[in-house]
Amino acid sequence: MGWTKKILRVDLSNGSIKSEPLNMQWAKDYLGQRGLATKYFVEEVDPKVDPLAPENKLIMTTGPLTGTAASTGGRYSVVTKGALTNAIACSNSGGYFGAELKFAGWDMIIFEGKSAKPVYLSIEDDKVELRDASHLWGKTVFQTEETIKKSHQDPQTRVCSIGRAGENGVKYACIVNDLHRAAGRSGVGTVMGSKNLKAVAVRGTKGAGAIKDPKAFMAATKAAKKVLADNPVTGQGLPTYGTQVLMNVINEMGALPTRNHRDVQFEDARKISGEAMKEKRPTDGKTHLVTNAACFGCTIACGRISRIDETHFSVVNKPEYWGASGGLEYEAAWALGSANGVGDLEALQYANILCNEDGFDPISFGATVAAAMELYDLGILSKEQIGIEAPFGSAQALVTLAEMTAKGEGFGKELGLGSARMCAKYGRPELSMGVKGQEFPAYDSRGIQGMGLAYSTSNRGACHLRGYTVASEVLGIPVKTDPLVTEGKADLVKAFQDATAVFDSSGTCVFTTFAWSLADLQPQLDAACEGEWTMEGLATLGERIWNMERLFNNAAGFTAKDDDLPPRLKTEPAKTGPAKGLVNGIDKMRPEYYKVRGWTPEGVPTKETLARLGL
Amino acid sequence: MQKSLHIDPNKCTGCLQCEMACSFENHGVFNISKSRIKVFNFEHAGRKVPYTCTQCAEAWCLNACPVDAIRIDAGTGAKVVHEDVCVGCKVCTIACPFGTVNYVAESGKVQKCDLCGGEPACADACPTGAITYVEADWTGLDKMRAWAGKTDTQPRAA
């Protein structure tokens, strides 16, 4: 059956902890993880709620394949109303935490209310309790994880926690698990911090056993693993270079946002690429990359474990940063690197470690630094205000600003607002590069047109993981489309968005979709989960999830005008590369997309659409 | 011909497919806390190391067992715990120098790797070849080949 059929409800205001049966009708309609937790969320939470109010809830949730032998079956998600976006948020993370939660016998945890003092939740199978976390408050993610494992006297305990960023109200704070995996975007860590919830520690010994047809399941997972192994992206590119395999590719495409999207190609892209991470450094003769790493159950292993150059200015006399640590992934390398015009790989890795250590999203942080650097360039922000000279390209500025944001000091507090609030504060809202308050990830939509539509309509604000048309427009998966045209992108974006919603609800990783389609996932789900899981049923299920999220956002106050890009991408043509002279055609694609979705011209799902989806 | 599990930590990514396969094979659930093979993650060194029983020829566990519950499988050479005989005294867990025999509170018996009767599930599940099942006399063959490849036998150009 896949699910444990049990959920935990934790009221932080009064300290009560309850076990509830999982709503199996909802499980059939929304599968698990993103879909199922969002169903619980929209049923229980007022869309107008202030994300930081006790009335907002925060759900940690697994999918039916989490904790099974399905490749990448270790994912968990955090669903809440995002502190950065005021929209529905769902941030997904790998590592080992999600599987451990499943092994302890829980499909999800619903946190409600707000604790009067810092606490953490301790789960050992059925033994669940809130414990005092005053000794952990003010500590980093790394310190918190270590302290909890020591005090539990169990190195096999898995921990997710917030760092100082989440405590200090940085709007894009993450929840970090297993040291360097994160539910990263939209400020889910900020919400956790607002509830005085520092961490969740879980140890599970029950396992994930209730597979509907074990023999069929093992056969299906084995076949699907072979598809991943035989695919050039998941079998070769990602294990070898990680997501950083994209740095040079996207730069060549003229779609690597550079200097707050002023440029679409970065002259130092090669220096911060996956290839560069495998080259020997002149200083110590070692490579930056130590090894690749897998999350639970993953047969791709795109994760990067790197060792920083001990002689680099950022870590001189800081031996605590000299060990192997997570990073760099493409998104972090881009946001900390080309977004700011910084081509210093070691500086990026140091900033990335700080993001992991104190739990803040490197995409939003890097992009906010980029906006600050533009404000500095325009003379709107001064050296005195920022505390350091901050021209584009300054590795020193990047590193200093990362430290300030981690500690919540000086200009770090301004950066902690995110680019939308910061740029508005300084009178230049148009310089924030994002949608619905969330900063763009690493693809410039002038060079990859479909991504403009995917960003604009993403339910959690600008995001590459909600409809990754890069796969089609750049890599030809499942079919090659022209990245420079808008024709056909409405259908493409919808197809990616709906399929992705299914993957995000299953417990598997969206990176499998470089190789897998729903046809590879379906047999695994059908063998694991009770009931009948057909291709048609899953396709509808994905669309249902998408529309459910949309309804929540509409009720929260979002309208069609929020499905838009910043003026720069619509009026300032790309200066170089294959997209030279192009802007993004969002205004042409959006009406087509609404039509394809079965929505009104105002972006509201029609009655017929809702009826068809059972909403 | 006897075969042996061969572990190459450099190839391990830490995905734990081996632990899931082991627990599924022996307990019918995906439950890494019941796995007989464990992957250890040395985070600060960036190393992941799978570790399990190496089936010592003269096994401490077997010699220590007071009730002869640990016996040699004639086919595989594995030292196999016979649960119906095991009394759960745990002496074998003390005797084993490597910690690879472990007590299972749920059953009140010990468990250890038994090579799955000659088809180890962990090796089958490993996606990177970090765990393989090879001829016991030649577990070092890959390393020899790698070093042999570095031997300079080409005549140098003048």
Fold and architecture overview:
The complex is a heterodimer of chains A (615) and B (158). By secondary structure, chain A is of the alpha+beta class. Chain A is 39% helix and 13% strand. Chain A contains 25 helices and 17 strands. In chain A, the strands form four sheets. A six-stranded mixed β-sheet of chain A has the order 2-1-6-3-4-5, sandwiched between helices. In chain A, helix 1 packs across helix 2 and helix 20 packs across helix 24. The longest helix of chain A has 22 residues, at 535-556. Chain A is globular, with a radius of gyration of 22 Å. The two termini of chain A are 24 Å apart. Chain B has helices at residues 17-27, 60-64, 91-95, 121-125, 141-150; strands at residues 3-7, 38-42, 47-51, 70-72, 79-81, 102-104, 109-111, 131-135. Chain B has one domain (3-150): Alpha-Beta Plaits (2-Layer Sandwich). In chain B, a hairpin with a 6-residue loop joins strand 4 (70-72) and strand 5 (79-81). Chain B contains five helices and eight strands.
Q: What are its keywords?
A:
heterodimer, A: 615 residues, alpha+beta, Aldehyde Ferredoxin Oxidoreductase,  A, domain 1, Aldehyde Ferredoxin Oxidoreductase Protein, subunit A, domain 2, Aldehyde Ferredoxin Oxidoreductase Protein, subunit A, domain 3, 3 domains, 25 helices, 39% helix, 13% strand, B: 158 residues, Alpha-Beta Plaits, two-stranded antiparallel sheet, 5 helices, 23% helix, globular
